[in-house]
Design goal:
alpha+beta, 6 helices, elongated, 5-stranded antiparallel beta sheet, 22% helix, 8-stranded antiparallel beta sheet, 264 residues
Length: 264
């Protein structure tokens, strides 16, 4: 036997807190069953999506569990699949590769992130880890941001130094092209705050360093958004690629607001 499927109308046959597995609250990141037992899923896949029917599967690979969130018209239900881990090792192995940022998944704690990153962090705090590496041939800092012991945001802060400031624009375009190949066309903006150098392309990089010109691109996928920003001030240029979790959207802002209120 490779799989056992449990439908929502079988809730009465489950014992104790296992009944929570067939409750819609299992989709809530703050629910008791997720905090105390399941934790974060490894990846999710939309198996079907039409006007009247949608099925989204959430995989817990090490537990041999799949939670299927089913919507038929406006009725929602949960269906469970218990998987024979040994028989499905190959199939689940492919699913486990769907990470959020590098090899990290939103909701991981600091120890979990340290275990998947190579080398020791340059900086380690209660709410932050910082590493150095290269991405697309560009040297950068890798920053992981945690709130309430959960990974909620991460980013690359690029550290390339160019004599010709237009080369920073080339770096931005290189990253934008790579992300577009992976995620599709982004929302893109090239905004002039001061058009003094707009007619002189050779000075566009210099214009970025003054804060006159800003490049921005954003991609959105189900679990996170990616922002690529090239901007500057006081003759310095900053290029960053930031990944923001949608699963824990608002958690960082709520934490910041709480700290501000505590200081009043």
């Amino acid at each position: 036997m490779s799989e056992i499927i449990i439908y929502d109308n079988f809730t009465k046959y489950l014992k104790g807190k296992t009944q929570l597995l067939l409750n819609l609250d299992i989709l809530n990141p703050q629910s008791e069953i997720l905090k105390l037992f399941l934790g974060n899923y490894d990846n999710s896949i939309v198996k079907a999506n039409s006007k009247y029917f949608k099925s989204t599967k959430y995989y817990y690979n090490d537990k041999g569990l799949i939670i299927d969130h089913i919507i038929v018209v406006e009725t929602e239900s949960i269906q469970l699949s218990l998987i024979n881990l040994e028989k499905n090792e190959k199939e689940q192995g492919e699913n486990s590769k769907n990470y959020d940022f590098r090899k990290a998944i939103w909701g991981m704690n600091i120890l979990q992130v340290k275990n998947i990153e190579k080398g020791k962090p340059l900086i380690e705090k209660d709410d932050l880890l910082l590493y150095k590496d290269e991405v697309a041939g560009l040297s950068c800092k890798i920053v992981y941001i945690f709130v309430q012991e959960k990974l909620v945001r991460a980013k690359y802060v690029f550290e390339e130094s160019h004599t010709n400031k237009n080369d920073y624009i080339s770096d931005f375009k290189k990253l934008k092209d790579l992300l577009t190949k992976k995620y599709g066309e982004p929302f893109y903006s090239q905004k002039w705050k001061n058009d003094l150098y707009e007619d002189d392309f050779q000075q566009w990089g210099f214009a970025v360093s003054l804060g006159h010109l800003v490049y921005f691109a954003e991609w959105s996928v189900p679990r996170y958004s990616i922002k690529l920003i090239l901007q500057g001030e006081n003759y310095k240029i900053d290029l960053q690629m930031e990944y923001n979790s949608k699963i824990y959207d608002g958690l960082e802002e709520n934490q910041r607001e709480k700290q501000q209120l505590d200081n009043l």
